[in-house]
Design goal:
Layout: H1 3-11, H2 14-43, H3 48-57, H4 60-75, H5 78-101, H6 106-120, H7 123-134, H8 141-168, H9 172-191, H10 205-209, H11 211-218, H12 222-253, H13 257-282, H14 289-308, H15 312-340, H16 343-375, H17 377-399, H18 409-415, H19 425-432, E1 436-440, E2 445-448, E3 454-461, E4 464-468, E5 471-475, E6 480-483, E7 489-493, E8 499-506, H20 511-517, H21 532-541
Antiparallel strand pairs: 1-8, 2-7, 3-6, 3-8, 4-5, 4-7
Helix pairs in contact: 1-8, 1-13, 2-8, 2-9, 4-7, 4-16, 5-6, 5-7, 5-9, 7-16, 8-13, 8-15, 12-13, 12-14, 12-15, 12-16, 12-17, 13-15, 14-15, 14-17, 16-17, 18-19, 20-21
Length: about 550
């Protein structure tokens, strides 16, 4: 599927299309606002040092609030979180409009901008967790991330251009007002979106909020998260350093003056559009490790070439290559992240990643000019490029199988059963990640009635007796059964040894019941017998998940 075809699929999804267009309008307003804010601070008579402090201070809320924002995104409807933050920022923009109209104190302008940044910190965990819940299947997930990045880069071009026009005609207050209106537009768009699917399945607060519950959910994703964390750390550091060194390269190395800085920044926007456009079809590949490595290596090589350029045109081309690689890397990494991390902890994990990235960005922006003064900008960019390539390769190795189908061997065998012939591979991958592996002792009976999901059973080894309504089936290794939701059913191990069965649910969400009522199984030795405590946990947890548990006589 080509780039245009992958994007057509995204915009054929009404909910995704409305979200993308609404946030695109809002992103234009954000860049419009940022330029206007810096101009207001500068025109107040503040020194360039104060201007830099104001810019740096806006990063602090993201460092301090991204993790709490992620916790909120995991506990509440992400759509409503976005609506609330957009309305709050819209009100703040109206206040800034009034302040600039009456030439209010600059300290109040800065204070309101910091307050707006506090609300903005809640945006990334919420939107990053909401998008996967709006896609029809995973064939839309990667292209949706790519479309999001494309529109954000286009807004990066349009917003400052509009700001320049408004500043030229002396209408800075209008810039703040227009940004306020964009927040109202996107809030209206979000209000019409369906309720966040990730929140429609009830999850007990204790299961999702406790440290133990979080650790249990994140454990399978530790290795890919470590790899993505390494890449995220160096991407942020290099991005922060490159943003500062752009001016140094244009003025001191190329001798192109302030105009050269503008051209290099234009190349950043152009390269971002190219990278995001390429990323759409590349995220449809079964293996994402290769696009991930290509993006990081391209970024690193592009940074080195920027430093080695001796004429402006060559530097512009190299900068476009570097940012194209950066966007490809970020889109692919985001898609792998969304595949690997369960929905129940996605907000918190995004918050942690954002904190890491923003902190690294600030550190890179701080250290780059110091290093450039000591060793020269060319050597610094060479070091940045080599470090980025090395970090990408290490991160790709750590990500491992999560960059592929995301299925363990048992789940892969299950989704290849004839029962699923004709379904899209991406949809099967999505279903496979919600399978629950159960180890059942000889004679053990498990009974559930009225589950809020369809259920699939796939016997990995041994022999099971599975009752579906009035029908009784004896299934050996490789056998499978389907149970429509609301159907009385039970299954038990009738083999003489401990056996394994894979259980899948659609829609997902019931997995939390087993985590709350059962005990983690191991492959060593037989499972412990069911005791009174486990029965009590089962009876207590069942109503929270819309279940009714009872026992059949032998």
């Amino acid at each position: 599927m080509g780039s245009l075809a992958s994007y057509r699929r995204v915009f054929a999804n009404p909910a995704l299309a409305r979200l993308m267009i609404g946030e695109f309008v809002s992103s234009i307003g954000d860049w419009l606002y940022l330029v206007a804010l810096l101009v207001v601070v500068y025109n107040s008579g503040a020194s360039p040092v104060v201007l830099g402090i104001v810019g740096a201070a806006r990063i602090v809320p993201y460092i301090l609030l991204s993790v709490p924002a992620g916790i909120v995104a995991d506990r509440y409807d992400r759509r409503l979180i976005l609506i609330g933050t957009d309305l709050a920022r819209g009100i703040i923009m109206l206040a800034l409009t009034a302040l600039t109209l009456v030439d209010g104190p600059i300290i109040a302008v800065v204070a309101l901008s910091l307050l707006a940044a506090c609300f903005s910190a809640f945006f990334s965990p919420a939107i990053g967790s909401l998008i996967p819940s709006l896609v029809a299947d995973e064939r839309e997930l990667g292209p949706a991330n790519a479309a999001w990045s494309s529109l954000d880069n286009l807004a990066f071009i349009i917003g400052p251009a509009v700001a320049a026009i408004l500043i030229a005609v002396g209408s800075i207050p209008l810039a703040f007002f227009l940004n306020a209106m964009t927040f109202l537009v996107v809030a209206a768009v979000l209000w019409r979106l369906p309720t966040d699917r990730g929140r429609t399945v009830a999850r007990p607060a204790s299961a999702e909020a406790s440290p133990g519950g979080f650790r249990e959910s994140v454990r399978p994703a530790i290795r890919p998260l470590s790899g993505l964390g390494v890449i995220n750390l160096f991407d942020g550091f290099v991005s922060g350093g490159l943003a500062v060194l752009t001016v140094v390269i244009a003025v001191e190395v190329l001798g192109a003056g302030d105009a050269g800085t503008g051209w290099l920044n234009a190349a950043i926007g152009l390269g971002g559009l190219i990278g995001a456009f390429i990323a759409g079809p590349m995220t449809l590949r079964r293996r994402l490790d290769i696009p991930l490595a290509v993006g990081g290596v391209t970024l690193g090589v592009g940074i080195v070439l920027v430093g080695q350029s001796t004429v402006l045109l060559a530097a512009i081309a190299a900068m476009a290559v570097a940012t194209a690689g950066m966007l490809l890397l970020e889109v692919v990494a985001t898609t792998i992240f969304q595949r690997a991390v369960p929905d129940s902890i996605r907000g918190r994990t995004i918050g942690a990643m954002d904190t890491l990235n923003v902190s690294a960005y600030a550190l890179g922006a701080f250290l780059a000019p110091i290093l450039a003064a000591a060793a020269g900008p060319v050597m610094v960019l060479l070091g940045f490029g080599i470090a980025m390539v090395a970090a990408t390769l290490v991160g790709t190795v750590l990500v491992g199988r999560s960059a592929m189908s995301g299925m363990d061997p048992g789940a892969e065998r299950f989704v290849r059963l004839p029962l699923f012939d004709g379904l899209a591979p991406a949809a099967l991958e999505q279903a496979a990640r919600h399978l629950t592996r159960m180890r059942v002792t000889p004679g053990q009976v498990v009974v559930r009635q009225g589950d809020p999901a369809d259920r699939f059973f796939h016997v990995l080894d041994g022999t099971f007796e599975i009752r579906v309504g009035e029908e009784l089936h004896n299934l050996g290794a490789g056998g499978y059964a389907y149970v429509p939701r609301g159907t009385v059913h039970n299954f038990r191990n009738i083999a003489e040894t401990a056996s394994r069965i894979l259980v899948g649910f659609t829609p997902a969400g019931i997995e939390g019941f087993f985590r709350e009522s059962g005990r983690p199984a191991t492959d060593a030795g037989p499972a412990p017998p069911v005791d009174d405590d486990e029965i009590a946990r089962t009876m207590a947890a069942a109503p929270k998940y819309g279940l009714e548990a009872f026992a059949f006589g032998e």
